[in-house]
Amino acid sequence: MARPAVARCAAALACCLMILGFGSVRAETTGSALSAMTGRIRQALEQRVPSIWRIEEVAVEEAGGSSWQITARLRLSRPTYAIDSRDGPVTFIRPVAGAGLEKTLHAVATGGEGAATPALELANPEVLDGVGQPPEELPGRTVVSGSDEARRLRAGLEADARRRVEEDEAARQRAEQRLAHQTALARAEAQRAEEERRAVEARTRRIEDLQRRLTSGARADRIAAFEAALGGNDESLRLLAADAALASGDPLLAALAIRDWVARRRSIPVQLFATREEPGSAAVLQAMGPLTVELEGFNRLTGDLVGRMGAPGYGVTRPSAAAGSLAGTGLTVNAFGCTLALGLTEHRTMDGLFRCQTLPALIARVTLD
Question: Does the record bear Signal in its keywords (predicted)?
Answer without folding.
Answer: yes
